[in-house]
Amino acid sequence: MIADGVEDEEKWLAAGIAGLQQNAFYMHRALDSNNLRDALKYSAQMLSELRTSKLSPHKYYELYMRAFDELRKLELFFKEETRRGCSIIDLYELVQHAGNILPRLYLLCTVGSVYIKSKEAPAKDVLKDLVEMCRGIQHPVRGLFLRSYLSQVSRDKLPDIGSEYEGDADTVMDAVEFVLQNFTEMNKLWVRMQHQGPAREKEKREKGRSELRDLVGKNLHVLSQIEGVDLDMYKDTVLPRVLEQVVNCKDELAQFYLMDCIIQVFPDEYHLQTLEVLLGACPQLQPSVDIKTVLSRLMERLSNYAASSAEVLPEFLQVEAFSKLNNVIGKVIEAQVDMPIFGAVTLYSSLLTFTLHVHPDRLDYADQVLGACVKKLSSKGKLEDSRATKQIVALLSAPLEKYNDVVTALKLSNYHHVMEYLDNETNKIMATVIIQSIMKNNTRISTADKVEALFELITGLIKDLDGNHEEVDEDDFKEEQNSVARLIQMLHNDDPVEMYKIICTVRRQFMTGGPKRLPFTIPPLVFSSLKLVRRLQGQDEGQDENPFGDESLTTPKKIFQLLNQTIEVLSTVPAPELALQLYLQCAEAANDSDLEPVAYEFFTQAYILYEEEVSDSKAQVTALHLIIGTLRRMHVFGIENRDTLTHKATGYSAKLLKKPDQCRAVYSCAHLFWVDDQDNMKDGERVLICLKRALRIANAAQQMSNATRGSTGSVTLFVEILSKYLYFFEKGNPQVTAAAIQSLIELINTEMQSDSSTPDPAADAFFASTLRYIQFQKQKGGAIGERYEAIKM
Questions:
Q1: In UniProt terms, what function does this protein have (predicted)?
Q2: Which of 118, 433, 446, 505 meets the CB 3.0–4.6 Å disulfide criterion with 493?
Q3: What is the C-alpha to C-alpha distance for residues 497 and 239, in angstroms, rounded to an integer?
Q4: pLDDT in the model for residue 547
């Protein structure tokens, strides 16, 4: 049925165009022969095609545009006729004899345009006559297009200030009156369209009406272009008349479109000065009108106006713009009880944006808007509407974008209350936005109270929210926790007392996050604490007394106690390798603070973790090298404690699973007995014992390889041990002699030439490079050169 209707409409349109073109042809022929009567006759017949009621608005528009083009040619002919001496008044009378009213009025408007240009009568009189005569067409579609034609031909002939058609003192009022009258009649016709035809076609009619809305809206555009319409005239005449028509038409489509038109076409300054009148119409609109969009666009325009120049801001204060907008939004939300939560939140979001642009210094205004939003949300619980959720994110993001400072947002007491109504997923997104804002703007959070408030906002990332049992993507989770970890570096205060409070606050929050988050959040907290310890060391060097004052108990030792308890929690995760690394970091910091018992305790904890929790062979190798490297840098230990720890480390080295790992760990332990800048830590004999043990292990590894694979394998381990021999030889260890080095070089050469040896280019290159180094040291001369001369190659 629909397809048949479309086909019929196409046929009717084709027939209408054919009839129009045929009569236009005869009209042109009459025009060419200057036959006025035939020209009028055929033009009237041509325009009769516009009398059809069978076309939809869209198809009717096609037909109208063809007629419009022909009327422009007819208008030029009428101008020529008046130049040739034909009376324009007689012509104006003559066209009124056309048989049908619609062609008659089109011709009348066309001649009227020429009549005004001739200036034989005041423009206002001709316009008044035409606008009144057009009342003769009451069919909605035909009437709309006729009045649109009148508006089109008259728009450049209005008696405006500065116009060639300007008349007496009240001339602008006549122009305004003409446009307003035409607008009023067009709006009535447009609204009446919805009642033309059966109810089942209402949706189709509404679509057609929507397509014709610009015909009505153009009148408001014409009004805005009239030079003589100043603020007073707009306030006293134009706006009240337009709003009267908008409110009285009681049509949802018309009210929404026309309110939007008013906002878009008239100047921002006018809106600001007539804000009360414009807003007063909003609660009177139909409940189904999308008032949120209307008000949002108004506030957006006013916000942009405020942002355009600081000079206009006093005007906003003068008219109390915020108060008026806030009141009307409250009334609209109260009046429209069925307004979805999305609509209410959109209004508050727009109002907040407006407030931040116009009154950036009035945080109480911004907090008032958030408070009103919380009040509206309080009856709804957690938001489930994704559009409303998106608007809440926009609402909460606005202060961050405006101030570029989370600290300012933290002063808004209702900010975190709004976040409570977000679903868990969106809460996390908003928390990430807040962290990104802090990082982007390099914002320092400098007090424990502000940190507490901040963590209340990002609680969705710190711990699992109530009722959140959803599966979380592992990559997303890691990214979220890494962003929290980065945040820790932005929490800083130069006052050590306050910094310690910040650390305690952060620790308390992190401990509620559950074991899964701790491996991400504990390390940055530990390093932040160690940074504070090192600052205290720097202050202690410059002064003898406690920098916190006599009454304070906060010292590096106190911080280390806190760190010990904090790292201990990681063992419940479990994350033994991470905990071990952090213990070693703390031990090194305690070493710099000359706190031997504390450093020893951290090493003890690291050793316990190594023995009881680190079972993977690769993890053991990594952990052991970390232990050896850290222990080598320690200078705070007495002989007894150091011997205990080094003995343990060498014992662990010999117990590693793989022989190559054992060998490397053992020769690394040699460094524990020879530290350059500490004379009391130079034990050449024990260095040699470690190196010899490493050689034995390397030899055992080759024998094992020979037994299992039939080849001795690579000589890499021997070359590595040779490098260690050379290191300690250079450092002046008397136990490491040139003869021992020479013996090792011969051993490596023998192994490489052995039939059971496996070719290894990398090991060969390593050995060759080592030999070149020895040769280089010989050539260098001096004390080192003399020592190297004893090595015969």
A1: Plays a role in vesicular protein sorting.
A2: 446
A3: 63
A4: 43
Short-list 210, 227, 213, 266, CA closest to 243 = 266
750/734 Cα distance (integer angstroms):
26
Task: Tell me how far apart the 2 most distant CA atoms of the chain are, in Å.
Answer: 134
**Among candidate residues 183, 186, 166, 162, the one with its CA nearest the CA of residue 174:** 166
Q: What is the DSSP letter of 757?
A: B
Q: Does residue 589 contact residue 611 with C-beta atoms inside 8 Å?
A: no
pLDDT over 90 at 719, yes or no: yes
Q: Report yes or no: 78 and 114 within 8 Å, Cβ to Cβ.
A: yes
DSSP string, 626-667: HHHHHHHT--S--HHHHHHHHHHHHHHHHT-SSHHHHHHHHH
Task: Characterize 38-74 residue by residue with b for buried, 16 or more Cβ atoms within 10 angstroms of its Cβ, and e for exposed.
Answer: ebbbbbbbbbbbbebeebbbebbbebbebbbebbeeb
Cα separation, 133 vs 149, in Å, equals 13
> CB of 631 within 8 A of CB of 668?
no
Q: What is the CA radius of gyration of the chain?
A: 45
Task: Tokens 């106690």: give the residue.
Answer: 561
**Nearest by Cα to 645 from 672, 664, 683:** 672
What local confidence, expressed as pLDDT, does residue 1 receive? 37
| Residue 192 and residue 205 in contact, taking contact as beta carbons nearer than 8 Å | no
Mark 157-181 as b/e (b = at least 16 C-beta within 10 Å). Answer: bbbbeebebbeeeebbebbbbbbbb
